[in-house]
Specification:
The longest helix has 24 residues. With 69 residues, the protein is mostly helical. It is built from two helices and no strands.
Length: 69
């Protein structure tokens, strides 16, 4: 697998993660895996991060590096 394929695979995985997170957080009373309810503050921040990623393709934990060619 070359660098472009690895980059594309990671972007696809990131997109799927954020799409699933939006679905989870917009459901009625989302909970963490341990069963603890997600606080309104955490919910707001995570939704903002995922929406930003899905809109711009840029995430808070990604380095701004050029797309491999």
């Amino acid at each position: 697998m070359n660098a472009k394929e690895m980059y594309d695979n990671q972007r696809d995985a990131d997109k799927a993660h954020h799409e699933a997170r939006v679905i989870w957080l917009t459901a009625d009373a989302p909970k963490w895996a341990c069963g603890t309810p997600v606080s309104n503050d955490d919910r707001r921040v995570l939704l903002k991060q995922s929406t930003c990623y899905l809109t711009t393709g840029e995430g808070f934990n990604h380095a701004n590096t050029p797309t491999p060619h």
